[in-house]
Design a protein that fits this description.
Layout lengths: L2 H16 L3 H15 L2 H13 L3 H10 L7 H13 L3 H8 L4 E3 L5 E3 L19 H15 L3 H14 L4 H9 L5 H10 L7 H10 L6 H18 L14 H13 L3 H14 L4 H14 L2 H14 L4 H13 L3 H14 L4 H12 L4 H14 L5 H12 L3 H14 L4 H13 L3 H14 L9 H13 L3 H14 L4 H13 L3 H14 L4 H10 L10
Antiparallel strand pairs: 1-2
Helix pairs in contact: 1-2, 2-3, 3-4, 3-5, 4-5, 5-6, 5-7, 6-7, 7-8, 8-9, 11-12, 13-14, 13-15, 14-15, 15-17, 16-17, 17-18, 17-19, 18-19, 19-20, 20-21, 21-22, 22-23, 23-24, 23-25, 24-25, 25-26, 25-27, 26-27, 27-28, 28-29
Length: about 550
């Protein structure tokens, strides 16, 4: 057969692959490889077999080739076959465990073989470094073998070898393998090309978003500016990344982390109308709907997800959220558990599973579950924070403080951490320290303060009252009432503060308002009697 005819057959194979006619591609690739015995044609045949899901046959073909240990692409494709066959130890052996080492900065270098033949390379296309792909596959293999420390190291090596290897960064972020500081440090160490300014800005929007509002908004604006630079010929919004669904999903996640659930819900609703199967946006939307208590919306979402994605952990997590929202915690645990069995690296399901125990005050099970989550997701501060909150619930304040400080080390910009430290200090009668923590919390919260943070304002007022700084206490109680007018604690605290100042008229007024919310509250009933002079035996001082 002439060379021109063979080249035409190669074109037919490429066309079959592009049209997803894999059986045809396999048929013609087998004939071309038999005629030429060229490594490039053998590789093309293996690719066709892999795409046709004939993993065992593709691996046998590659492994029988003398080229497999001389060419990185052969080894990589053979390892991909073993990945699909879930033979993780063999996958690592094929990739060459021990061939590559790390320097002090986490960069990887090859100690054995730096040569590779790029058999399917198109000179006009930009490629992801094959070493980066190999590092990423090593990370996946180690993660499947539950060696998360090694997986983390290889994912970092993959993204450092080539910043275009987005999947490595996605695994590090979605699986919470890095702390806030480590994520920032990693991004600053990546070597982006001069044309990749937009990508650097985009990556900065993906990492944890507990920074203050102006810092995060600056990241989004920088990305929009970079995208405009990359396409100066068109200034329309449609030609920039400003309306990109991934970017807007990141912005929605930021709203959620700031406690602006309604704003988050409105944005994700609009995004899901545009792209109803965007799973990251769906997850953020679920979280917002859960916080807002829209049980009907949760029910519809769960039904649709289970129908469309029965093998996705997200679908059963949604079902768990629905039952949690309607306070059927036993059923919610079943669905959260099913989600973790489908994907053991899905953090929301683990945390939901633990919260379903904690809300029923089943402390031992909740604590055990939180510890598991903390071990699986070392870059997520929430399990450690929840352990501290569980210890606080059992009045083990020293242990609570220890775990909450660990959460602070993982994520030093989450205001909830500082609020819980303030609560611990308050219970330990360290009122000056409590005031400091509560003020630090409010300093991290974006303005204007939402109703979500009303308890923090009340806590600060309580701490000032304990320090006998009554004017400051009254000021913060009044600020709390501006956020919510239905808080018994705020009215009771304000009434008691006026009472301590011997301002009986104001105290009686606010005791009455508190009792209007809860007529049988014992503290307010008793103190109202004291203020009215009905029960003068009680010394409220």
């Amino acid at each position: 057969m002439r060379e021109e005819e063979i080249e035409k057959l190669r074109g037919v194979i490429r066309d079959c692959v592009s049209k997803h006619l894999y059986s045809s591609a396999i048929f013609f690739a087998d004939k071309v490889a038999a005629i030429t015995n060229d490594p490039a044609d053998i590789y093309m045949q293996a690719q066709a077999l892999f795409l046709g899901r004939h993993f065992r046959r593709a691996f046998h073909l590659l492994n029988a080739s003398k080229t497999v240990f001389r060419d990185l692409r052969f080894r990589y494709l053979a390892a991909k076959c073993l990945e699909e066959l879930k033979e993780w130890d063999q996958c690592l052996l094929m990739l060459g465990v021990g061939d590559e080492k790390f320097d002090v900065h986490g960069n990887v270098y090859d100690t054995k073989d730096n040569s590779a033949m790029y058999l399917d390379k198109d000179g006009e296309d930009r490629e992801i470094n094959i070493s980066s792909a190999i590092c990423f596959l090593r990370g996946k293999a180690y993660e499947a073998l539950e060696n998360r420390a090694q997986a983390r190291q290889w994912y970092i090596a993959a993204i450092k070898a080539d910043p275009l290897c987005y999947e490595a960064l996605e695994c590090l972020i979605e699986n919470h393998m890095l702390t806030c500081e480590e994520e920032t440090s990693l991004l600053s160490s990546l070597q982006f090309g001069p044309e990749d300014g937009w990508l650097s800005s985009f990556y900065s929007c993906l990492i944890k978003k507990y920074d203050k509002e102006n810092v995060v908004d600056a990241k989004f604006k920088e990305l929009e500016k970079e995208s405009s630079k990359s396409n100066p010929s068109s200034q329309s919004l449609m030609c920039t990344l400003k309306d990109n669904t991934d970017l807007l999903a990141c912005k929605a996640e930021h709203y959620h982390q700031r406690g602006e659930y309604q704003k988050c819900f409105e944005l994700t609703s609009a995004l899901l109308e545009k792209d109803p199967f965007h799973l990251k946006c769906t997850l953020v939307h679920l979280a917002a709907v859960m916080e807002l208590g829209h049980s009907n919306e949760l029910y519809l979402m769960a039904c649709n997800l289970v129908k469309d994605y029965p093998q996705k952990a997200l679908s059963w997590f949604a079902a768990g959220c629905y039952y949690y929202c309607i306070k059927k915690y036993d059923q919610s645990r079943l669905y959260f558990s099913k989600a973790t069995s489908l994907d053991g690296t899905f953090p929301p399901a683990w945390i939901g599973f633990r919260n379903a125990y904690a809300v029923r005050e089943e402390g031992d099970q909740a604590m055990s579950a939180y510890r598991t989550a903390a071990r699986l997701f070392p870059g997520c501060h929430l399990p450690t924070l929840y352990i501290g909150m569980e210890y606080m619930r059992t009045h083990s304040f020293k242990l609570a403080e220890q775990f909450i400080m660990q959460a602070k080390a993982i994520c030093p910009s989450d205001p909830l951490v500082y609020n819980e430290l303030g609560v611990v200090a308050y219970h330990m009668n360290e009122y000056n320290q409590a005031v400091w923590w509560f003020e630090k919390t409010l300093a991290l919260i974006p303005s204007p303060i939402s109703e979500m943070w009303e308890p923090t304002v009340v806590n600060l007022a309580h701490a000032y009252r304990k320090l006998k700084m009554f004017h400051e206490a009254i000021s913060f109680y009044e600020k709390a009432l501006m956020l919510s007018t239905k808080s018994l604690t705020t009215y009771a605290g304000l009434a008691y503060t006026y009472h301590l100042q011997d301002n009986f008229t104001a105290a009686i007024t606010y005791y009455h308002r508190a009792l209007w919310l809860k007529p049988d509250d014992p503290f307010c009933t008793e103190m109202l009697n004291v203020a009215l002079g009905i029960d003068p035996k009680i010394d409220f001082h």
